[in-house]
Amino acid sequence: METQYTIPKELKSAIDGKCPRCRTGNMFAGPLFSFKSKRMLDRCPACDLKFEKEPGYFYVAMYVSYALSVGELIAACVGTYLLTGNLENPWLYVIVALAVTLIMAPFNNRYSRIILLYWMTPMFRFNPKIYAQVKEE
């Protein structure tokens, strides 16, 4: 008897913070905006994939986080200008930039690592055989 599984989509699995290899195990200990959200698990609870393939691997995620931050700050400052029409007060933009940076820090921390694992590391590609094996257990 053959079992058919619906394989989760890559983007949905990435948004949910699932393992890139099996798309079932969680990568983080808690939800996005919680005190446990920064803690990333060492291994996937479903397929036992080690997320940090070598010491210092997640330093690359800092560059991804930087790119996310730049995009968010540009969007926030353009949005501030469109809402207020104020170009004369630099303190308005400084306050908005600091607020956006602080509010988006958990998002950037989590999703910079997810982007690194899903789309910038070829060895962590989805494996349908492992997915089927995890689903059968």
Output mean pLDDT.
90
Structural class: mainly alpha
Main sheet summary: none
Give a count of the beta strands, DSSP E runs of length 2 or more: 0
Count of DSSP H/I helices:
4
Shape: elongated
Low-confidence stretches: none
Query: SSE order in H/E notation?
Result: HHHH
Helix content: 40-55%
Q: What does the model show?
A:
- With 137 residues, the protein is an all-alpha fold.
- The chain is 52% helix and 0% strand.
- It is built from four helices and no strands.
- Helix 2 (60-84) runs antiparallel to helix 3 (90-119).
Keyword list:
137 residues
State the gist of this model.
With 137 residues, this protein is mainly alpha-helical. It is built from four helices and no strands.
Question: How do the helices and strands line up, and which of them pair or pack?
Answer:
Blueprint lengths: L9 H7 L43 H25 L5 H30 L8 H9 L1
